[in-house]
């Protein structure tokens, strides 16, 4: 089954405002405020008409991302058999320009088409699922302590067991928000605090110690200090009882390896797009698990296409022991026909061939970004 065409469409969908169901906009993440989700939808078609779908980021810009997929990656992909995934992924190790996230989206489309070719859901191609549903973490931007407490209580009432919130703008405010959420839920909600590399070493120590002194023990502090600082992470972990997680560091195999070698982290928050695809993430998961490190999966307002890929990956990879972050429920719309629902804090793993989702091409056209 050879690939006949590869197309990319940039799409933007608004995020529902706070107070509208599971809405979270404006989602404040450090100095970034998210009110809409911008993604690149990839459409692959084989010579026999089988269509595979992928999803990735629009970086560095929608027009550049489209050109890289259709003019650069397509040169290597079109004409290949749909199962030649390793050859495609290995063909783009450019030393001066990192296009790994775009290649990851193409890999996703190839896996979707391959599953449809064999009439098998993706999780079967990955070794078989170990669960039918995946617990997910509710994600919340930076709010004041009172609003954060209200949102935490609402998330608990909706069946979530885990809440991840952003931080890093004001350490005092971060501590106050975490304490307010902990008290509002009587400690029944596991909390994650993501500082997005904004703290210095001393500040990270003080925040962690202040939370511990207040009886608040987050599930983990995520990327509290900058990447490429394995020695600092090792010292930070020795100073605190709170588990330490990395996210951006986990996108690079060498960084993750160094952190594991130094016994510097407790959790790796992986992401199949910057990591190089589903298969590459499987390799990282095995490396981390052998070192006794727990795993979760990152989220960045993905549509239903990538959400399906994450659910297949997590359900077929027992090393993922912590709930993945998810925010797709907060979108005003989606490009898939039947949107994923969160029931008692969990999402059901698709069972249809490939990714197991039907992409609505009219929705893709409706939300297309002009370039």
UniProtKB/TrEMBL annotation:
Catalytic activity: D-glucarate = 5-dehydro-4-deoxy-D-glucarate + H2O
A Pfam family assignment: MR_MLE_N
Sections of the chain in a coiled coil: none
Broad class of enzyme this protein falls into: lyase
Residue ranges of every copy of the Mandelate racemase/muconate lactonizing enzyme C-terminal domain listed in the record: 145-243
EC number: 4.2.1.40
A GO MF label: glucarate dehydratase activity
Pathway: Carbohydrate acid metabolism; D-glucarate degradation; 2,5-dioxopentanoate from D-glucarate: step 1/2
Protein name: glucarate dehydratase
């Amino acid at each position: 089954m050879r690939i006949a065409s590869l197309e990319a469409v940039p799409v933007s969908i608004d995020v529902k405002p706070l107070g509208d169901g599971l809405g979270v906009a404006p989602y404040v993440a450090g100095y970034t405020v998210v009110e809409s989700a911008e993604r690149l939808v990839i459409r692959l078609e084989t010579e026999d008409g089988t269509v595979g779908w992928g999803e990735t980021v629009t970086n560095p810009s929608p027009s550049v991302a489209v050109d890289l997929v259709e003019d650069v990656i397509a040169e290597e992909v079109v004409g290949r058999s749909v199962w030649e995934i390793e050859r495609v992924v290995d063909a783009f190790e450019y030393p001066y320009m990192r296009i790994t996230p775009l290649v990851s989206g193409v890999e996703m489309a190839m896996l979707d088409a391959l599953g449809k070719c064999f009439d098998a859901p993706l999780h079967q191609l990955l070794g078989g699922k170990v669960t039918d549903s995946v617990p997910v973490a509710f994600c919340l931007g930076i709010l004041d302590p009172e609003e954060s407490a209200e949102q935490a209580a609402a998330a608990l009432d909706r069946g979530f067991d885990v809440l991840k919130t952003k931080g890093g703008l004001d350490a005092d405010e971060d501590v106050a928000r975490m304490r307010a959420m902990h008290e509002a839920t009587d400690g029944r909600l596991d909390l994650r605090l993501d500082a997005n590399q904004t703290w210095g070493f001393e500040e990270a120590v003080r925040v962690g110690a202040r939370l511990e002194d207040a009886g608040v023990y987050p599930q983990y502090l995520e990327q509290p200090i900058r990447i490429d600082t394995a020695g600092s992470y090792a010292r930070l972990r020795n100073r605190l009882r709170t588990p330490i997680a990395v996210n951006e560091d986990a996108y690079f195999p060498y960084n993750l390896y160094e952190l594991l070698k130094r016994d510097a982290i407790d959790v790796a928050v992986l992401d199949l797009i910057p990591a190089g695809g589903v298969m590459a993430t499987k390799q990282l998961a095995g490396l981390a698990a052998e070192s006794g490190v727990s795993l979760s999966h990152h989220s960045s307002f993905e549509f239903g296409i990538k959400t399906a890929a994450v659910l297949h990956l997590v359900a077929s990879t027992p090393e993922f022991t912590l709930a993945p972050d998810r925010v797709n429920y907060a979108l005003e719309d989606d490009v898939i026909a039947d949107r994923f629902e969160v029931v008692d804090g969990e999402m059901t793993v698709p069972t249809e061939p490939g990714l197991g989702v039907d992409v609505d091409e009219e929705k893709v056209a409706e939300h297309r970004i002009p370039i």
